[in-house]
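Exercise 7.
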Amino acid sequence: MDCKHCSNRFKTISNLNYHMKNTKYCIELRNERQKENFQCNKCNKVFTTNQAKQLHEKNCVSSLVEDNNKLELRLLKKHLEDKDDIIKELKEINKDKEKDIITSKIVDNIINSNRVIKPISKKSLVLNDITIIARAEDGFINATELCKAGGKEFKH
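Solution. The predicted structure, written as tokens, is:
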């Protein structure tokens, strides 16, 4: 069976009817308007059937680009969160290093003052027979004992 408008051949009448109802170029040749237009929500391309539109939307380049942009945005947000976490960690490390530097300067001053100093562990030391306790985890140094060992009076 032949389409009398575009000369395409079809094996069955139902195929010919479908063609005449849904094929854009054949409808245009007849100067007819389509009853219904189905438009892609992503790229606004028009289809003669909802089925064709749905098939197109599964592979629409515009939706793929949009999905890719959403994925990229999520990744960038994650990188930003990671960056903030790294900055917090570096600040904590820096605080610990500042405490270590201060402790080191105090110990250097005591050593340079020619007083007798003996380390008794990694966390405390003895200076002029006075044990000075220090905690590495929070940077605590017993200031009263440190002053006593240095020959200074510590008053509140």
